[in-house]
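User: hey, got a sec? need Serine--tRNA ligase folded
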Amino acid sequence: MVDLKRLRQEPEVFHRAIREKGVALDLEALLALDREVQDLKKRLQELQTERNQVAKRVPKAPPEEKEALIARGKALAEEAKRVEEALREKEARLMDLLLQIPLPPWPGAPVGGEEANREIKRVGTPPAFSFPPLDHVALMEKNGWWEPRISQVSGSRSYALRGDLALYELALIRFAMDFMAKRGFLPMTLPSYAREKAFVGTGHFPAYRDQVWAIAETDLYLTGTAEVVLNALHSGEILPHEALPLRYAGYAPAFRSEAGSFGRDVRGLMRVHQFHKVEQYVLTEASLEASDQAFQELLENAEEILRLLELPYRLVEVATGDMGPGKWRQVDLEVYLPSEERYRETHSCSALLDWQARRANLRYRDPEGRVRYAYTLNNTALATPRILAMLLENHQLPDGRVRIPEALIPYMGKEVLEPCE
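Assistant: Yep! Here you go:
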């Protein structure tokens, strides 16, 4: 959510943000509703003031005036009740609209949709195979590394790994958690569900409600990232300045309905309903300098993880219309997938300034004693099974087995993923 005071003072900034981010919102209607709310608040205050004045006059009023004053008091009370009801209804509508206001993006963001995304750099070289390479599905089938019956049990977009590949997935998660702990992030294992308020706090609601599964007969929803829970941990608190920045590495199974993705990536591990994710999350003081520093830190962590996994990747500056309403800046990391001869996104590094903090009520007391909204940032550390597709295809050997990167050998106790017997 944005600062309402700034919205009133600089509407042209938010008109541009709405246009550049492609948000369907009538800002003039919102501002008109805000004025109605302010007028109702003013009228309610006037009614309350007059009621108090009338109430004070009644005991001392002569008999011929008392009846009229009592009648006036009742009329004021009835009008105040009507105004309060109208105010509650309009405030609720205003809040719904305010939750849809996008954060103006940083000046360096390309303007446009996905087609405007700009490559920043490439690291590593795509493999040149001396043999006909297989895609990750063929590799799993050849080695007996996945269970084809799982769709009969759990439906489409499900996966179940077997043998060395099952152990490899677990090794990757532990590797990522160990890496983040060494980088000074507090490792946390978290629930895969949260209340609606937490989703509103991150901005997943209302914009992306169709991607989230509700748990029947509860007030809980399945999370698609540990960010949802991490962002709500300090809601309502006032943190001391010296406690910042807070750095968390949260692991949780993640769930996504994949609504609207029918026909896309239906084969293999690229787009599944349940996956596993280690998420980087930072809550810092409200300054662009602190935010930029944390952004680079999150980006460097992800890059180093990909280097240790020995994967060719690139960085992409995400355009305004592709970054989501709450993002100040977003840089995606994409890994080369040989079977598609293109790079596919594995990490998304985002700075959101105070947009989430205002929604989730994340505050701290600055050195001057003022209470301020914090800034938040997040980035993937590692998510499976998508990264497995890249690891299998880039590190495959002529006989169909798969080489294990040096950094993962201690976790696997071997150098090559072997077929299931």
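Quick note: The mean pLDDT is 95. Let me know if you need anything else on Serine--tRNA ligase.
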